[in-house]
Amino acid sequence: MDPSSTTGRGRTDGTAGDADPRLIRRESGVAGHLAEFRRRMRGGELGSVPVVLGLIVIWITFQLLDSNFLSPRNLSNLSVDIVGMGMIAIGIVFMLLIGDIDLSVGSVSGLVAAVFAVLNVNHGMTEWAAVVVAVLCGTATGAVHGFFVARIGAPAFVVTLAGLLGWNGLMIYLLGTAGTINLDDEGMVARLTNEYLTSDVATYAVAAVGVAAFFLVSYREARRRAEAGVPYRPLVEIAVRTAVLAVLAFGAAAVLVDFQGLPLALMIFLLFVIGLDLVLRRTPYGRKVFALGGGVEAARRAGINVVVVRISVFMVSGTMAAIGGLFLASRLTSVSQALGAGELLMNVIAAAVIGGTSLFGGRGTTWSALLGVLVIESIASGMTLLGIEVAVQFMITGCVLLAAVVIDSLSRRLQKAHGRA
Question: Which alpha helices (H) appear in 193-234, and where do they start and end?
Fold first, then answer.
């Protein structure tokens, strides 16, 4: 059945691809799902397909070159390594969604880690209090950037570039002449990346809860859309999607329990990814963020307080940079002047773009950060196992980033051709 023939307002001449996708009611079942998938691909709505395929190719390639790549130990370490960078990349996703950029996230992550270390180690403040103050410092830096960009009208590139230099200088000043502060190995922050759910039952239970939550949310959404009289996913399709997720979730759980169990860091990261994805897709605030990425003037005329939304997104970026900085410090169990420097900024921006977030604004999800950072860290892990120098890793990551930008540009061109951009 032609999807366009199921609605009174769609095209009926076999060119449903040119109709407004909101007016197309696709047929149910596997055939309808495949027809919808083909329509989206033809229209340039590639989503996460390219990065998932790329990740599969990367994993297969490294596994063929070194059989230890997909070992439980390496995959467990990889799942922890992605967290610090991934947290920061989530903030970059928010920034790209509104068409802005934040070049200060690396320096902010280092500054926040330094604030925590100075307060906790040098001044004896409890870890919880030091964490709260440090994270609030990250939020404050975002508010400062947002004020100059949204209220004063200064370019985000210049403002955050100034932040990159200024916050890095403040971090160096706080760390003093020693330049390094070691954290308590048994402390809360250090345990963020060293704690595991060693119980097999607990690990599988987490996977089961995640799968059950996905099914319930999807089923509730389908019922809500059915009651509103708009197209919805049938129960059979929801069951198939849930089954696929169950295979992935329990497969991942089986791999993790074969080593040390479910890493606490990975669980926290996934909670942030899921929670902020729901904020973007299911809340009025999230719709305002996407609207702003679609066009500032259009958003303003729609009654959105552009200044407030832009400042809030900068604050989200600063907060996520702060949280990411604490996870990076946890991985090293120390804070030094090198934290947040080097290639971190380029990697988190690359992760957001490689994961599928558009540089043109208005398209992307928090899952983009997860997928993108997984690609980058997979390349790094594979190169380390093969004993290949870091320079080659940078070149390969650069090529992957270029490919992602090209795909994004071609996707946008296809959407314009079909009247969807």
Answer: 200-228
CA dihedral 116, 118, 124, 127 (to 10 degrees): 10
Tokens of 251: 């497969």
Q: Is the dihedral of CA 119, 123, 127, 130 positive or negative?
A: negative
180 - beta bridge partners? 336
For residue 262, what are the β-bridge partners?
A: 197
Q: Would you state the torsion angle of the CA atoms of residues 344, 349, 355, 357, taken in this order, to the nearest 10 degrees?
A: 160
**pLDDT band at residue 63 using 50, 70 and 90 as cut-offs:** very high
The domain ranges of the chain are 1-42, 43-198+260-417
In this structure, what are the phi and psi dihedrals at residue 336, rounded to the nearest 5 degrees?
Answer: -135, 175
Cβ density class 192-203: b for 16+ within 10 Å, e for less: bbbbbbeeeeeb
In the three-class reduction of DSSP (H, G, I as helix; E, B as strand; rest coil), residue 421 is classed as coil
Q: Which residue has the tokens 């020693």?
A: 178
Q: Which 3 state secondary structure label does DSSP give 358? A: coil
- Spell out where 42-161 has E strands: none
Q: Which residue has the tokens 């009654």?
A: 303
CA–CA separation, 370 and 252 (whole Å): 15
Looking at residue 37, what is its pLDDT? 58
Q: Are 45 and 415 in contact (CB under 8 A)?
A: yes
- Exposed e or buried b per residue across 21-32, where buried means at least 16 C-beta atoms within 10 angstroms of its C-beta: beebbbbbeeeb
At position 307, the amino acid (one-letter code) is V
Class of domain 43-198+260-417: mainly alpha
Residue 379 token pair: 């390349």
What digits encode the pLDDT tens for the residues 265-296? 999 999 999 999 999 988 999 999 999 988 88
Beta bridge partners of 196: 263
Q: Hey, what are 199's tokens?
A: 């119980």
Phi, psi of 266 (to 5 degrees): -65, -40
215 residue type, one letter? F
pLDDT of residue 27: 54
Are 74 and 254 contacting, i.e. CB atoms less than 8 angstroms apart?
Answer: no
CA atoms of 307 and 318, how far apart (whole Å): 17
Q: Measure the CA–CA gap between 252 and 421, rounded to whole angstroms.
A: 37
